[in-house]
Amino acid sequence: MSDVGWGLWGSWEQTEACLNTVVGQWTGPDPVERGSIRRWLEPKEFECAIHTDASAARAAGFSDLVAPAAMVFTYGVAPYWSPGDPPKRIDDEPTQIQIPVIFNVPAPCNKSFATSMEIEFAEPLYPEDIVGCTSKLTRIERKTLKVGAGAFLRQEDTYTKQTGEIVAVAQLDIFRFYAELGDSA
Questions:
Q1: CB contact at 8 A, 178 and 151
Q2: Residue 145's CB: how many other CB atoms inside 10 A?
Q3: The pTM is what?
Q4: pLDDT digits (tens, 9 = 90+) for 9-37
Q5: The sheet that has 131-145: what strands, in order across it?
Q6: Is the model's pLDDT at 1 over the cut of 60?
Q7: Where exactly are the structural domains of the chain?
Q8: 12-32+67-84+97-178 domain in CATH 3.10.129.10?
Q9: How many CB atoms lie within 10 A of CB 39?
Q10: How does pLDDT run across 67-114, given as a tens digit for each residue?
């Protein structure tokens, strides 16, 4: 079973050792910024005054213009590349978003897919806020499905502002499994 694919390879004992521990932590590289809010709203033609007019946001009880809640993922993702990093080559593995239960948690698996995501939003994001994220492995449920033997791994992502206030908590379920060579899974 050395057919390592997408994700960190290891034993189920190593997977279980990660349960209820921090498996990923990062800070988004850019603060919340009015121009990026506008660019996020434009293609959606999403018109809501609290996102475009600071006085309307204040009248609604906010301290300033508010970024749409879903932008927490825009601001809370770690950079894919930074000055000083080596350049990518055409045959390098593609850069992926941070899913620590795949990339940082070892398991005897060579394939994975997401099965669900639940998000609870808390505090609003304002211009100049900086978003960080801490990921924990909170559940392991071993199963054998049609695609192969594996486990549902639950990753809990807690997004916070630089002040420590919680902005959002996301629960992401990933099924990691071992697919035999030649399987179409």
A1: no
A2: 11
A3: 0.88
A4: 999 999 999 999 999 999 999 999 999 99
A5: 22-27, 131-145, 148-161, 166-178, 111-121
A6: no
A7: 12-32+67-84+97-178
A8: yes
A9: 10
A10: 999 999 989 988 888 899 888 888 887 777 778 888 899 999 999 999
**Rounded distance between C-alpha atoms, residue 156 and residue 169, angstroms:** 7
Biggest alpha carbon–alpha carbon distance for the chain: 61
DSSP-derived 3-state class of residue 159: strand
Q: What is the pLDDT of residue 94?
A: 72
State the Cα–Cα distance between residues 91 and 86, nearest whole angstrom: 14
CB 73 within 8 A of CB 169: no
Strand 148-161, strand 111-121: pairing = unpaired
What b/e readout covers 82-105, taking b as 16+ CB neighbours within 10 angstroms?
Answer: eeeeeeeeeeeeeeeebbbbbebb
Cβ 64 vs Cβ 126: under 8 Å? yes
Locate all alpha helices (DSSP H) within 21-94, ordered by sequence: 34-41, 49-52, 54-59, 72-75
Locus of tokens 């809640």: 69
Q: Do 10 and 108 touch, CB atoms closer than 8 A?
A: yes
CB 91 within 8 A of CB 75: no
Sign of CA dihedral 129, 132, 138, 139: positive
